[in-house]
Amino acid sequence: MKQPINKQQLLEQILQILTKAHQVAVASAHSAIDAATNEQTVPEHKYDTLALEASYLAHGQAMRVQECEKEIAQFKQLPIHLASETVRLGSLVRLIDDNDNLSWVFFAPCSGGLKFEYQQQMVTVVTLKSPLGAALFNKSIGDEAIYIVGEKSFCYEIDAID
One biological-process term from Gene Ontology (predicted)? Predict the structure, then answer.
């Protein structure tokens, strides 16, 4: 990252992404509810399951809305630390792999796998539940984070913690 790290700005960018996902989930839930309650989905015979399937979809979409709301709330409560000696929640971590490629990860309580661009760099959100997150947690600059997925081993050196 070329500019100084503004973690509040980074967090606001994540919240914008999550808010957009929430808006999409709400619109999808409304559409699914409309489909489930539409008179055209009333069963014509005992094997007609369109209304049942539509209600399952509406339920799933409603659960996704709740999940989005929970993620937004967790990010709003995430403490912003300036710099830290070790990787913890709210840390922005620069990693170097075995081929000297740099990557950035933001350590968060949820939304693992979310990728976004910040200051011309791709940042991936990782959680403690992920193999990489578990390998990084409580490590310091210069430490190696090694983890295995399937039969493949990954190794990163922690280059910076913001």
Answer: regulation of DNA-templated transcription elongation
